Amino acid sequence: MAIDRTLYREIPVTNGLWASAAVLMAFLLGAFASFVYVEHHGHIVTGMTNQIVWGMPHVFAIFLIVAASGALNVASIASVFGKMAYKPLSRLSGVLAMALLAGGLAVLVLDLGRPDRLIVQMTHFNFTSIFTWNILLYSGFMGIVAVYLWVQMDRSVDPKWTKPAGLAAFVWRLALTTGTGSIFGWLVARPGYDAAIMAPMFIAMSFAFGLAIFILVLQGLCRLADTPLGQGLITRLTRLLALFVAVVLYFTAVQHLTNLYAQEHAGFEAFILRDGGLYTLLFWWVQVLLGGLLPLALVYGRSAPVTAGLARVVAALVIIGGIAQVYVIVVGGQAYPMQLFPGYEVSSSFLDGEVAAYTPRLPEIALGLGGVALALFATGLGAKILRILPSNLSDHNLPG
Amino acid sequence: MTFRMPNGAKLADKPTRRDFFKSGAAFATMTLAPGVTLMAFGGSAASAVVDAGKRWGLLIDTSKCADDCDACVTACKTENGWEGNGDAERDVQWIRKVTLRNKATGHESSMPVMCQHCESPPCVDVCPTGASFKRDDGIVLVDKHICIGCRYCMMACPFKARSFVHEPVNNQKPHAPRGQGTVEGCTLCVHRVDAGGIPACVESCSATGNGAMLFGDLLDPTSEIAQRLAEFPSVALRPDLDLNPGVRYAEI
Amino acid sequence: MILTRIFLALCLFLSAGALSAADGVGPDIPQATGEPHPEGNDYMRRWHMEMLKHDRDLTMYLGIRPTDTSLAECFECHTVRDEAGTPVTVEDERHFCRACHDYAAVKVDCFDCHRSTPVDFDEPSPHAFLTRGPRFRSWGADDPEVLLAYLSQVMTEPN
Fold this sequence. Notes:
The complex is a heterotrimer.
Chain A: E1 8-9, H1 15-41, H2 56-71, H3 73-79, H4 90-110, H5 118-123, H6 130-153, H7 162-185, H8 198-225, H9 231-261, H10 266-275, H11 278-300, H12 308-335, E2 344-348, H13 362-385, E3 389-390
Helix pairs in contact in A: 1-13, 2-4, 2-7, 2-8, 2-12, 2-13, 3-4, 3-7, 4-6, 4-8, 4-13, 6-7, 7-8, 8-9, 8-12, 9-11, 9-12, 10-11, 11-12
Chain B: H1 17-23, H2 26-31, H3 34-41, E1 56-61, H4 71-80, E2 95-102, E3 108-114, H5 122-126, E4 132-134, E5 140-142, H6 152-156, E6 163-164, E7 183-184, H7 190-194, H8 200-208, E8 213-217, H9 224-231, E9 247-250
Helix pairs in contact in B: 4-8
Chain C: H1 2-16, H2 41-62, H3 71-77, H4 96-104, H5 144-156
């Protein structure tokens, strides 16, 4: 079977590209306007309060950052685990990973109470804080993936360097996601956090979210560049995604089963699993069903190859389920009241003992969406000016 | 000295006006390059008010705390200037009155809850810049000069002791600077304590006649608070977390 | 090369006198009251930030609170008053710190948290409050009298 050499091309300038750029730019401007508005008036114009201190911006940021490390997976599978079928996708995987991380970090930084003090953060490090380690991990990730991309794209570099660079990137990204999960896992104060399983669960989430976004972005770019995308590759990617979804469901199950066993966490578990209103709905219907069981049924319930349309549906479901999962973790974990004294009910003028309400307002939603737009815009820009998209991804062209 | 400077600089290098006067070099410096001269005279190691041999704490007797009294809250508001807008969700609350009701027996007690000034504060552990810090005498503070407003300390605090300032502030009290975008909480009236006084909440509680709050040095065996803690039972909030707070509650 | 050096030296020489308002070059610095700083104006202009930060760290971490070197003490002498005799806050461009900092385009971070007027003065609400929409407390903007008073103040204050 004749295999063409993998030729990477910049995506051509078309009306479709301009239209996509225009839409993304609109979201970027909206996010910028929201940032200026919140910066001037203070966070009182957002829905975040002293009870729900991290809201929509953080949901989007955590989702994007977790997905960023997962998006690099495709390249890791090729470089580290030797699956040659994914080799042509490595460059896009690296660029997408950097873009998603940039989008997530932008939202995180712009939501700070004092974003003008970023320099202060970069010069004052408290090494007992996982946040500090995360900052170093995020910055290092950008550098390591940049080196990884350079090693692959620069013809003067010996291909033997791809594997060590890929391995370094893979290990770094595991550390990064562990750090992100530990932001919550290391908080002793709240019953919804304080769990060692947060770190591996976030790693499983990163596999799923990153690959789902990768599938959608790959399809989108191939459509824009009129690149043939083989059904075999789509099937492989989507089946892998379904496997990752199953792993996420496993970790979620273990987390909640463990919590249910501990009487001290019974209140929180009852809140999330039964009494939490919106959080219960999001958990069961969106996270578990839409984002977990339905994709599994759609992919594993058939023996026929996965079509492009089905892949889009599955990826979209996983993303929606993923956002719901992060929302339940981040906001649900804060909504449940803290037990100031075990065995006692608490009430006060500061809403102690009450389930905290959270209504996201436009400024914070716009900021979060702007982060997504930044990631997509950066990816599109990268595909336009760099040669990262293969010119032919049809099935007969797949190596290995 | 074991305090932490945010930029890691040593105190002795930086000149102060007092050192300038003491050195009597006022005239000489006008003719020389400023930086060089002052370094040459050096700085005096100023005597610290913070004493690592002390640990400031509070003892709150909930049986003396009246359900309908919030003198401590009002006093703190007046002393530190954090009047609210009536928005319970976004208003800053350095101290609030909390009612604890025993789920099994139904017994209720009321008490003020503020920053517990833990010995192992989770907020200090998680602050990315080190703005949340513990002084050598046990008082946990926010260095608002380096606070970036990430609110991670608010996530980490088991007592909801910290509040985020959601809107622009002015007309601050000179001893309690506070502003938009930073996080703040009870300072144990550190400006009063450093001058040898007691926190405003404790003072106002005594003034009402209830006398539910007691302030003192936990490490001084002759202080009233240490003696009361040794003699009568008291508990910490969230005892399961083993944070060893400086604030203790009796008769819950 | 030598010409560059002469040029740079000239710039340095000229900039040394940049803070004198008499020749029209440089900021218009409001006159202070009270005793002048013994270190001299040039020293204070160059080093005031270092001194403030040093004293700040002493207070923050060691609890040393010398009242003669507090920010509040600065405004005992360096208060600028408007026509009515009321001190102006840092939001007004006539404020002492803004006179030089606006000229040098160096942002003053202090007054987000610290007060910018003498201790006994009751500062009015920050301007940001008055520009919020009807969802939030209007701070009197829905009261015609208050609104008119504000508008007339805005009309008469110099730009």
